Amino acid sequence: NSTLFQGRSFEVSFLRGLASLKFGRSDDLKTIANPASEAKFQLEDPETARIHYEQALDFFENQGDDKQIANLMGRLGDLSRGQGDFSRAMKAFARAREICQGHSDQLGTAHFSERMALVYNHQENFERAIECFQEALTYYEQYRVADRLAFVLSGLGELQNKMGQPEEALKYLRRALHIYNKLGARGPAELV
Fold first, then answer.
1. What sign does the dihedral 120-121-126-128 (CA atoms) show?
2. Burial class (CB in 10 A: 0-12, 13-18, 19+), 140
3. Which of 80, 8, 96 has the alpha carbon at shortest distance from 44?
């Protein structure tokens, strides 16, 4: 890349992907999905990231590609949550979850339920946060998705503690710690 675009590799690949779409080469849009450069891009220039996501969303809505729509709604939700726009984040995550439910995508549904729980927690709507974490927990327990299960159990423990239920909180947190230890975490810093 030239020095003009140094540090903007995600934006450049995103624009390249969008340009290729205009010429009918939708496979090139996959260059957008580099998570490391995407996270940096969201932090450095969140409004430009939002514009790009919304442009891609328009394209995939016209194509009727629900999978990509759900993915982009997730990205928009994460971006909004990071900016403290919890209402916008909730709408994005709810739409993504609805799409996943419509396609019987249980992992996607659990993922977006988990994301919604985080937003409800920020809004201090602890009851709704618990409901959403419980939805995710059901899937993660059934299919033994250990890392996500431990994360959700930690979240449930935190919420129970906030609601004045320390015994219930300890039950969840002990289960989470047990799973984290099985996954190889050696200390508290590795549990997050």
1. positive
2. buried
3. 8
Alpha carbons 79 and 77: distance in angstroms, whole number: 5
Rounded to whole angstroms, the Cα distance separating 81 from 6 reads: 27
Half-sphere exposure of 181 (CA within 13 A, CB side): 6
Reported as a single tens digit per residue, the pLDDT across 114-152 is: 999 999 999 999 999 999 999 999 999 999 999 999 999
Note whether 41 and 11 are within 8 A (CB): yes
Q: What is the DSSP letter of 165?
A: -
Token reading at 97: 């979850």
Task: Report which DSSP code applies to 13.
Answer: H
Judge contact between 108 and 97, C-beta under 8 A: yes
Prediction pTM value:
0.76
